[in-house]
Amino acid sequence: MLTIYNTLIKQKAPFISIKPGKVGLYVCGMTVYDYCHVGHARVMVVFDVVVRYLRSIGYQVTYVRNITDIDDKIIQRAKENGESIEQLTARFIQAMHEDTELLGVLRPDYEPRATEFLPKIIEMVQQLLDNGYAYLANNGDVCYTVSRFNGYGNLSGKRLEELRAGERVEVNEAKQDPLDFVLWKAAKPKEPSWESPWGPGRPGWHIECSAMSTTCLGNHFDIHGGGMDLQFPHHENEIAQSEGATGESFVNVWMHNGFVRINEEKMSKSLGNFFTVREVLKQYPPEVMRYFILTSHYRSSLNYSEQNLETAQQALTRLYTALRGLPQTDQVGADDSFQHRFNLAMEDDFNTPEALAVLFELAREINKIRVPDVFTAAILGNELRQLGDILGLLQTVPEVFLQQGHHQDQVGLAPMEIETLIVQRQAARARKDWSEADRIRLSLKTQGILLEDGDQGTTWRKE
RNA sequence: GGCUGAGUGGCAGAAUGGCUAUGCAGCGGCCUGCAAAGCCGUGGAUGUCGGUUCGAUUCCGGCCUCAGCCUCCA
Asked: Which bases along strand B come within 7 Å of a protein CB atom?
């Protein structure tokens, strides 16, 4: 039985989908004005694993991950760059697709963009006005009346009085209550705008997600996900808007992933301490980054460091080493104890560190049995690949992974040259010229190439 | 200030009211021409002070420390 931690009730609970066998999942994607950083990568990878796992246990998942392509930051960045908003967002959407593809993140079933949903957004704002949850402020904005919505603060565990007591609530004279938030912003000169019953303007920050999610998945759907920082106010406001407009319950399960940290501090745009995905991928294979993300539970924080990526590389090397040189087979083993334990880990709120531990035990079993019984080892290898696939790992040809090396931009010897040296060294070994054999091995090692003499001859890999 | 979460071996990171996580690193052995990889074995941990209990790292309470949210942020 799959259990998922639900932020709404602050505990794990058995997952029961609204429609049997089907899951509607919406994840807040990116605001596209810059490259993906490691924090974005974490959201993408974590929910990719959620989708893969749900599908692996038989659910038909409709996965929606939006793109926010209109907001203050985008407008500002486009202005700074002297390019149009369309050019800017197109560029970063393209970049995001490149990054996620490298990371092995499957495309969502729908990838709606805010600017494609203006009619729906306007309709929802009108519904909120009609239902008495919103008002037209004297500056032309349409604002949400937070105090009218029962249960505001349930998701983030905040109470209205506490929020009011906070010193950091923005002051805006047009709002009846400082906590009210903007649904529709009246256009300022030279800003992009759309026609609406309240004059030209553009959507507020939260409404686009309400519009996109309910359109793609219906007014009431199963799971909504995103980073912890979206819990408040973004998701809190989404609930207020959606339920206020539709009159229906919005989402059953809210999932929030933890942050990526650097030196015990949140990685974020505003702190400027972020690494972009493409920066990191210059140094490490994408699968290493993916593995690194999955080494901690999705709700925990994940500390970004070179050392942790190194360790990830080594760990993945161990798994690929077990897979290396196994004969091809389609056979499935009779013993499914590894599979069972893997599933126990995953159904416990997607416990990927525990699931990875099972993978290593499987690898040990393969290494143990491969000499006496290579056939059984091959079957176990299949299982390892299959389980790895649920995590989006281990789908590379082992030789390719092991020989691609550490740093992608590193120029080294061509494989042909390495093979030639290996042949020369074999000859030296055959005539017991150990010093020559060791010289070749050492000279390759200084170039990051490790030679390993095995039963089947000498193989090489990069350090 | 309010609220939330966390503190596990050298590092990373799970789990658990009593029994071996796992990976990397260390140590010993096997294997190897020597290595590497692999296998076997091994050392080493639960912030702190109390409480509950036959027994707590695990449950409860205080304290300390850290992070996050309360403002744009995945």
From this structure: 1-5, 11-15, 21-25, 32-40, 66-74
Is the distance between the Cβ of A360 and the closest atom of strand B smaller than 7 Å?
Answer: yes
At the fourth CATH level, the homologous superfamily of domain A16-262 is: HUPs (3.40.50.620)
| Domain A305-403 sits in CATH 3.10.450.50 | no
State the first-to-last Cα distance of chain A, in angstroms, to the nearest integer: 41
Residue A428 three-state SS:
helix
Closest by CA to A146, choosing from A121, A118, A169, is A169
Strand B contacted by A261 CB (< 7 A): yes
Q: What separation in angstroms does the CA of A43 have from each of A47, A103, A267, A298?
A: 6, 12, 13, 9
- Nearest nt to A435, CA vs C1'? B34
Q: Looking at this predicted complex, what is its ipTM?
A: 0.96
Q: Considering only residues 36-75 of chain A, list those whose CB is below 7 Å from strand B.
A: 37, 39-40, 42-43, 73
Q: Where are the domains of chain A?
A: 16-262, 305-403, 415-462
> Is it the case that residue A169 has pLDDT exceeding 70?
no
Q: What is the pLDDT of residues A271-314, one digit of tens each?
A: 889 999 999 999 999 999 999 999 999 999 999 999 999 999 99
Give the model confidence (pLDDT) of A100-112 as tens digits: 999 999 999 999 9
Query: Is strand B within 7 Å of residue A169 (CB)?
Result: yes
